[in-house]
Every structure is written in structure tokens, then in C-alpha cells.
Design a protein that fits this description.
Elements: H1 8-24, H2 30-58, H3 60-88, H4 93-96, H5 115-130, H6 135-151, H7 157-179
Helix pairs in contact: 2-3, 2-5, 2-6, 3-5, 3-7, 5-6, 5-7, 6-7
């Protein structure tokens, strides 16, 4: 493990702190807490595994291609975000700030980048590239996954933004490489 980049995260954390506290307060409402806990739990991978399997089984050749590409972005995304988390070492908001409470259990200790958002964005882009009709369900769900990570006190907005950017770039790369085959 290496140290975080020269205090950069400390400065960004302070800037994002007020926003994180404001949205985290929403967890005091039981309905909001349950909604975002459920979305976050589905974003752990369950929905994406079911979707990839359904596409592979019922989507014909395009479904099998989409499922294979989802498998690739999932595996590369997992390795990439785990490597970044352990190199950049940014504590989660609820660990750093007493006023922010974890709305659910974190899968690991560090927050940058958001792996949930990375995967939600990359899987959504790949699935929608093959089946555009899925956008009506997957895009709002991906947005809810990203929002859940901040609302539940598990990530800062920049964690989510970085996860989304990495996920989008990874999906674009896999789609572009596959188009060249």
C-alpha cells in the first residue's frame, strides 16, 4: 500500500463534506434508507449477474456477445478498482466524518473509486449497446446505484464520478475492441 496523493483527498474531502452530510440525512427516513440499501445490494452484482445470464440465454447471438463483454468489463473493472483503492487509500466518508453515518455495510475499507458505480455504468453501456430498449430500466438504475453510494455515506461524489468515468471508458474500450474483431 502507498500513501494517498499528497493531501489531495484531504482537501477534496473537506470540500465535499457538507454535501455528503446533507444527502446522508435522507437515511433518517426509513423508506429512503430501505430503498437505497436495496438498490445498493442489487448493485453488489446480483442484478448484473442475472442480466448477463438472461441475455446469454434469451438474447441470441447479440445476447451472448453482450454477456461475454459484461464478463470482461466486470473482471477488468474489479481488478482495476481494487488496485486503485489499495494504492490511493481514501477512507470512506463515514470513517472520516463523525456526522456521516453508514446506511449499510461497506464491502471494503476504502472509497476511491466507487466499484458499484464503475460496474453499474460499464454493464449498462454494454447491455444498452446491444439492446437499446434496456436503457429505460438500466440507466435510471445505474443513476440510483451511484446516488445510493453517497446517500448511504459510503462514498464521496468524486468517488462516484471517478467510478462512472472508469466504467464508461472500460465499456467503450471493450465495445470498440469487439467491433474490430
Amino acid at each position: 500500500m502507498s500513501a494517498q496523493p499528497a493531501g489531495w483527498f484531504d482537501r477534496v474531502d473537506a470540500f465535499e463534506y457538507r454535501f455528503c452530510v446533507r444527502v446522508n440525512v435522507a437515511c433518517e427516513r426509513a423508506f429512503v434508507l430501505r430503498l437505497f440499501q436495496s438498490v445498493s445490494r442489487l448493485g453488489d452484482g446480483l442484478l448484473w449477474y442475472v442480466l448477463a445470464a438472461a441475455l446469454a440465454l434469451a438474447g441470441g447471438a447479440a445476447g451472448r456477445t453482450a454477456a461475454l463483454q459484461m464478463l470482461v468489463v466486470g473482471g477488468v473493472g474489479l481488478a482495476l478498482y481494487k488496485s486503485l483503492k489499495h494504492r490511493l487509500i481514501r477512507e470512506r466518508p463515514y470513517i472520516t466524518h463523525e456526522a456521516i453515518h453508514a446506511g449499510t455495510h461497506a464491502l471494503d475499507r476504502y472509497s476511491f473509486p466507487s466499484g458499484h458505480t464503475l460496474h453499474a455504468v460499464s454493464f449498462t453501456i454494454v447491455a444498452v449497446a446491444h439492446f437499446p430498449v434496456l436503457a429505460i430500466l438500466l440507466v435510471p438504475f445505474a443513476v440510483l446505484v451511484a446516488a445510493s453510494r453517497v446517500i448511504l455515506g459510503l462514498h464521496y461524489p468524486t468517488d462516484v464520478g471517478a467510478g462512472a468515468a472508469i466504467g464508461a471508458a472500460l465499456a467503450a474500450l471493450v465495445l470498440r475492441m469487439s467491433a474490430g474483431l
